[in-house]
């Protein structure tokens, strides 16, 4: 009997889609509306990875607003209003759809584990035609725990079957999540990572999705035997 194909769990922002322009825009629409100074693209990009609530905390610190919880809740709600529309300035990273189609054809169950809230996650997956590949999704609202807690990653991996799993992501948070989950990790190096590769937990690295099907096949040959 052949072993089940390795389940593949993907991160979303900075891995499958480059959503930083829309997150930057939504943050600045809030700041503009509040009569506050705007943040740069580089700042916005560096605030992505721990979800929308964390992004708003980072924005508040950056513009000198402090950390009042009521103010945070108010600004987060305004941010979500701006962010929940169709992702007009977000793009897929090159080769993503082809790679997922090849991996699906090779029989790998696939799912998503993101810190993005549920509604924008669903909208983005549908917008880019990625929903058809994802058999299980954990977003920021699925469980009480969020990455780097390993619970959402375990949740998706379990939903994809009882074979082995590989996590694929771009950030410090993803590397830490995979390490804590005890799962192998493929680091996509073109996302929002700020730390040198050598300092991050990883099993594989790749810089273009064209490389992913072969990487997964090699991984499978070593663990599915
Ligand atoms: O929205 C975020 O901050 C992070 O999202 P990700 O987990 O898909 O990278
Ligand atoms: Mg990410």
TrEMBL record:
<keyword id="KW-0119">Carbohydrate metabolism</keyword>
<dbReference type="InterPro" id="IPR023198">
    <property type="entry name" value="PGP-like_dom2"/>
</dbReference>
<dbReference type="GO" id="GO:0046872">
    <property type="term" value="F:metal ion binding"/>
</dbReference>
<feature type="binding site">
    <location>
        <position position="11"/>
    </location>
    <ligand>
        <name>Mg(2+)</name>
    </ligand>
</feature>
<feature type="binding site">
    <location>
        <position position="170"/>
    </location>
    <ligand>
        <name>Mg(2+)</name>
    </ligand>
</feature>
<dbReference type="InterPro" id="IPR037512">
    <property type="entry name" value="PGPase_prok"/>
</dbReference>
<dbReference type="GO" id="GO:0046295">
    <property type="term" value="P:glycolate biosynthetic process"/>
</dbReference>
<dbReference type="InterPro" id="IPR023214">
    <property type="entry name" value="HAD_sf"/>
</dbReference>
<comment type="similarity">
    <text>Belongs to the HAD-like hydrolase superfamily. CbbY/CbbZ/Gph/YieH family.</text>
</comment>
<keyword id="KW-0460">Magnesium</keyword>
<dbReference type="InterPro" id="IPR036412">
    <property type="entry name" value="HAD-like_sf"/>
</dbReference>
<dbReference type="InterPro" id="IPR050155">
    <property type="entry name" value="HAD-like_hydrolase_sf"/>
</dbReference>
<dbReference type="GO" id="GO:0006281">
    <property type="term" value="P:DNA repair"/>
</dbReference>
<protein>
    <recommendedName>
        <fullName>Phosphoglycolate phosphatase</fullName>
        <ecNumber>3.1.3.18</ecNumber>
    </recommendedName>
</protein>
<keyword id="KW-0378">Hydrolase</keyword>
<keyword id="KW-0479">Metal-binding</keyword>
<dbReference type="InterPro" id="IPR041492">
    <property type="entry name" value="HAD_2"/>
</dbReference>
<dbReference type="GO" id="GO:0008967">
    <property type="term" value="F:phosphoglycolate phosphatase activity"/>
</dbReference>
<dbReference type="GO" id="GO:0005829">
    <property type="term" value="C:cytosol"/>
</dbReference>
<feature type="binding site">
    <location>
        <position position="13"/>
    </location>
    <ligand>
        <name>Mg(2+)</name>
    </ligand>
</feature>
<dbReference type="Pfam" id="PF13419">
    <property type="entry name" value="HAD_2"/>
</dbReference>
<dbReference type="InterPro" id="IPR006439">
    <property type="entry name" value="HAD-SF_hydro_IA"/>
</dbReference>
<dbReference type="GO" id="GO:0005975">
    <property type="term" value="P:carbohydrate metabolic process"/>
</dbReference>
<comment type="function">
    <text>Specifically catalyzes the dephosphorylation of 2-phosphoglycolate. Is involved in the dissimilation of the intracellular 2-phosphoglycolate formed during the DNA repair of 3'-phosphoglycolate ends, a major class of DNA lesions induced by oxidative stress.</text>
</comment>
<feature type="active site" description="Nucleophile">
    <location>
        <position position="11"/>
    </location>
</feature>
<comment type="pathway">
    <text>Organic acid metabolism; glycolate biosynthesis; glycolate from 2-phosphoglycolate: step 1/1.</text>
</comment>
